[in-house]
Amino acid sequence: AQSVSQHNHHVILSEAASLELGCNYSYGGTVNLFWYVQYPGQHLQLLLKYFSGDPLVKGIKGFEAEFIKSKFSFNLRKPSVQWSDTAEYFCAAFSGNTGKLIFGQGTTLQVKP
Amino acid sequence: KAGVTQTPRYLIKTRGQQVTLSCSPISGHRSVSWYQQTPGQGLQFLFEYFSETQRNKGNFPGRFSGRQFSNSRSEMNVSTLELGDSALYLCASSLREATEAFFGQGTRLTVV
User: Fold this and answer.
1) What is the pLDDT of residues A37-49, one digit of tens each?
2) Contact A100 B48 (CB under 8 A)
3) Are B35 and B88 in contact (CB under 8 A)?
4) Nearest CA to CA, how far is A42 from chain B (Å)?
5) For residue A95, what is the DSSP state?
6) Do A98 and B56 touch (CB under 8 A)?
7) CA separation for the pair A68, A55 (Å, rounded)
8) Nearest-angstrom CA–CA distance, A30 and A32
9) Which residues of chain A are under the pLDDT cut of 70?
10) Handedness of CA B86, A4, B23, B103 (dihedral sign)
11) Alpha-carbon distances of A80 from A13, A14, A86, A95, rounded to whole Å
């Protein structure tokens, strides 16, 4: 069955630390991949997306993600986090085979000032 | 342009009742999807509509249903509510499948 797994459920970092959140999806074929962020009290918004081409994609607010097809992974990175990055992060994958956009369980990031 | 609008924002219902949630997508978007968000479970896919047709359905019981109107607005209905149905219900719209989904603020449903 189609699924998306996020390895870290809760991450705590100090400001200026580097961030990497893991994401794996379970199926082959053509996939479109997304990272969404949900700040406290706000709606989900798109950080970045990958459809094809350069596997290293850059998003808003200094975030980037790397698509590694052989590992079925799409990890999110940021070199230096800020307190304002405290939020919940969701990885999502759209499979052309199933026609569904499926989300991972989410990772709560807490950045300490 | 206006974003995705969900109404109501909050609901409190009693077990056994039914509830209808509404979603108005971004103008021009014809695809509307619904998700259930609960702590620890993330977003669970409920169903997706495109041009008034349900194209995909998640693994939820038949008590969960939906529909889409000719103006792309969508409703979802939950009948015979259970305590476990308490969650944030999110609606997302997109131009077409596989493209970026834009989310509404959600409807917080509490079943008591």
Assistant:
1) 999 989 999 999 9
2) yes
3) no
4) 7
5) E
6) yes
7) 7
8) 7
9) 28
10) positive
11) 10, 9, 13, 32
